[in-house]
């Protein structure tokens, strides 16, 4: 079996770390990095720390408008597929790299597999929502992280090729949690103590490309009674600078460069709570039982909010301030996201399915 995996953005490296190693146990992987993220701390650090194999192809697409970026990826992925002739195209999540892979796979009439299938925020203003809907509908294999995702797919008429595997990010957290436990270096570097700081991340287009919303978030974070550590995404650096908000943010928050996964998970585990608009961070907070305040009106990771561990507050300053002071969080954590072996299940299902397709008589 030969799988072509497409990655390009930070969360996809975290997911590929666990899935790649499972895939390579059962077959051959052609790993393609679109180059959507390219800064050392947004890309290389994950390959180094998590032992992800060097990409076979780096397409070097970099940043551009959504349309041009996606188009460049499509144009660059297609010849790779023609040259390497994989059995399946494997895609992660909901970025432009995901959509580009789905389009190439479906145009070349090959089998497409989607990890994190069936998630919906029902907010079509988010580019990610459109990417994930289109990718699910172009996929022969939909790997759903929860039963809820399976039901969502069924509601859209997708029932064949749907597998509830659990969430690969749960596998990722389990793989590093014990490795980083007790490590105090990153806390010491930042001058913060266990349970006495807030960890924040902000990068969503809807939050950063609107000056008023970004300033409102900043006001909310600045009202925290504990230090706020904000490993800052390059998009957010760019917007704070262009809105003239950088100096203020730098004074009121602990701004640091984006962190490697090991330090980030350690901080997430040690933080008193996390404030974020990231999809992945909402889940990781949930797995580590760190209360989460989400800077969005809705989430595709509905289970984290339904059980009370994740409070959706949007960008209103007062709502953020109030959530930061809330001190009652659930006593128990359900586990709707599988058993921590999603990656292995995905590899085994693909191996079995590819073998069965190959065994069919050619017509
Ligand atoms: C992308 C994904 C988003 C995901 C996020 C993960 C899409 C539509 N969005 O958003 O779903 O949550 O990645 O972090 O695919 N930049 C750099 N260096 C880099 C990467 C980006 O400077 O290595 C800057 C550039 O100014 C760029 C901006 O960040 O224009 C945005 O990057 P882009 O990849 O287009 O979108 P993200 O906001 O990172
Ligand atoms: N992450 C990281 N360092 C950081 C911020 C995030 O390693 O400074 C990891 C985080 O643990 C998660 C992933 O990056 O695994 C989430 O990526 P991001 O928030 O950029 O994207 P999203 O999940 O929202 O698509």
Present the secondary structure layout.
Blueprint (H helix, E strand, L loop, with lengths): L1 E6 L2 H17 L1 E6 L10 H7 L6 E2 L7 H19 L3 E5 L3 H12 L3 E5 L11 H11 L3 E4 L2 H9 L6 E3 L3 H13 L4 H6 L7 E4 L3 H4 L2 H12 L5 E4 L2 H9 L3 H7 L1 E3 L4 H10 L2 E4 L2 H9 L4 E3 L7 H5 L3 E3 L4 H9 L16 H18 L4
Parallel strand pairs: 1-2, 1-4, 2-3, 4-5, 5-6, 6-7, 8-9, 8-11, 9-10, 11-12, 12-13
Helix pairs in contact: 1-7, 1-17, 3-4, 4-5, 7-13, 10-16
The chain binds uridine-diphosphate-N-acetylglucosamine (UD1) and uridine-5'-diphosphate (UDP).
Descriptive report:
With 363 residues, the chain is α/β, with parallel strands linked by helices. It folds into 2 domains: 2-167 and 338-359, Rossmann fold; 175-325, 3-Layer(aba) Sandwich (Rossmann fold), CATH 3.40.50. The radius of gyration is 20 Å and the shape is globular. Strand 11, helix 14 and strand 12 form a beta-alpha-beta unit. The protein has a 7-stranded parallel sheet, sandwiched between helices. A 6-stranded parallel sheet has the order 10-9-8-11-12-13, with helices on both faces. It has 17 helices and 13 strands. Helix 1 (10-26) crosses helix 17 (342-359), helix 3 (66-84) crosses helix 4 (96-107) and helix 10 (211-222) runs parallel beside helix 16 (317-325). Residues 9-11, 36-39, 42, 63, 94-96, 127-128, 203, 234-235, 238 line the site of uridine-diphosphate-N-acetylglucosamine.
Concise overview:
The chain is α/β, with parallel strands linked by helices and 363 residues long. Helices cover 49% and strands 14% of the residues. Helix 15 links the parallel strand 12 and strand 13.
